[in-house]
Prior knowledge:
This protein is α+β, with helices and mostly antiparallel strands. It is 27% helix and 36% strand.
Amino acid sequence: MLTFGSWATGAAALLLAACSSVHVQSDGAERLATTDARTYVWVNDRVPVQVEGQAVVDAEVVERFRSAIDERLRARGYELVGHGDAALEATLHLGVTSDSRQNDPYFAFHAWEQGERGHLVIALADWHSGEVIWSARGRRNLRVTEVATGHSEIYREGTDESRDWKTETMVSAVLDELPAR
């Protein structure tokens, strides 16, 4: 028998899952699958990849992502090597955009919400040609920065939420699109 309590718990779980999900787009799995490349090196300045929003330059956040990517790539059969031994150049870009939701019955609990969305781009390029062989983009909501409540009069107030990148979740979702070795 379905009770209100079990229904409400299930609905809350679905809302949380929807808000924390990572939306991923990838390109090049077929091209990468036809190569035997399994070694890579980090070279963010040689591979031109565009990321949405303001670039994240926080060294701690970037290093946390890079470490998680290295670990996940290793688990998928790739090996981090020095510059002279790499078949692939790896690039990591992080960006943040702002967006708002108004009267959204599925996600917003307020009349209006302003939030931040995080973007992760990972690209693998051929070491010799520089051509991007595989790339993927992931994005997820990071936090709500401002809310508005009310009906006839709207009251806006900031929030004290911190950015929650969910590094492992984003990296896993994006690299699940990468062919294993």
